[in-house]
Amino acid sequence: MSELWGVVAAAASSALGGTSIAATRYLVGHLDPLAIGSFRFGIGCLLLAPVALLGDRRWPERGDWLQTAGLGLLFFALFPILFNASLIHTSSARGALALSTLPLLSLVVVAALGRERLTARKTAGVLIAMAGVGFALLSGLADAPPQAWRGDLLMIAAALCMALYGIWSKPVISRCGPIPFTTVAMAVGAAALILISLVRGSFDAVAQFAIPQWSAALYLGVIGAALTFYLWAFALGKASPTSVAVTVTVNPVTASLVAAAVLNEPIGWNLAVGIVVVGIGIWLATTDGRNAPLSGR
């Protein structure tokens, strides 16, 4: 049951993350990628901090401080830089498809590190889910800016950051809980982004913001950071890294729906078929009876 709730939380996080792709794709035309990350995770941290301070919550122990800070820089500083920069060069559909390599990357890394068993069912589920994503976005993949491959590669690098974060953060989350860990890690990443943005003058464009730009920035902070990454951390505390990662294939579906509505990026009938295939792949990968980690590392 714990694994199931983790997968449900991860799927919800991925669905919300898909909407963030479209919001980011809109905002990169108005603001530097560093400043976008600063807004997203700065607002997210401010919202999570009061929740983390309520009650008797366990914060990262002294022995975990360096690892928590490192993970914060990896996921809440380097990841958004790569993520946001990728969407300057590619479409929401292609960017989301590139991000959906996350479960495959996670599968390879956890197997290489000996954290999970690499089973045929789990591998098949990941590949089927990714195939479903590709089919769902088929009609929108060709409609991309020139040299979109640059953005695709940047998004795959972002997915690798996400995979490593999912694997290395799980032990710390199990010791201190998802909200305190996410708050501290996000604070470290946000502080780094804000400092670099101030030095580079990345916030200068904010003076030209109107209601649509402020709305997108607030949405990224409230939904795209605080809620999305709390759910992701909660999921990592309950389920295996691969089970959590495979749900990211939900992300492109919501990204394409929002992009179609807001950015007029095309979708077709194949989206419905792709959604079904993605669901089958997630079910296969997350219902493997041998899904348990090899050790408590």
UniProtKB/TrEMBL annotation:
Keywords on record: Membrane, Transmembrane, Transmembrane helix
Key word Transmembrane helix present: yes
The UniProt record lists the keyword Nucleus: no
Gene3D superfamilies: 1.10.3730.20
InterPro entries, A to Z: AA-Vitamin_Transporters (IPR050638), EamA_dom (IPR000620), EmrE-like (IPR037185)
Transmembrane segments: 33-53, 65-83, 95-113, 125-142, 148-167, 179-199, 211-232, 244-263, 269-287
EamA domain ranges (all copies): 4-136, 150-286
Places the protein is found: Membrane
Lineage: superkingdom: Bacteria
SUPFAM superfamilies tied to this protein: Multidrug resistance efflux transporter EmrE
Topological relation to the membrane, as annotated: Multi-pass membrane protein
Family designation: Belongs to the EamA transporter family.
PANTHER family linked: EAMA DOMAIN-CONTAINING PROTEIN, INNER MEMBRANE TRANSPORTER
Protein name listed in UniProt: DMT family transporter
Organism: Bosea eneae
Lineage: Bacteria, Pseudomonadati, Pseudomonadota, Alphaproteobacteria, Hyphomicrobiales
